Amino acid sequence: MSMNNLVNIQPAPPTQSTSPKLGKQMSKSTPIVVSTPTVTLAPGPTPGPTSRSKPSKITKPQGRPHTRPRSRKVQQHITGKSSRQRVGPSCDMCRRKKIKCDAYIEVVEQDVDEDCVEFDVETSHVLDQSLISRFITQDEKDDGFKMLFSNGKLIKFRNCSFCEAKGVEATYERGYTKEDTVLHTVLDTMNKKIKRRLS
Question: pTM for the full model?
Answer without folding.
Answer: 0.51
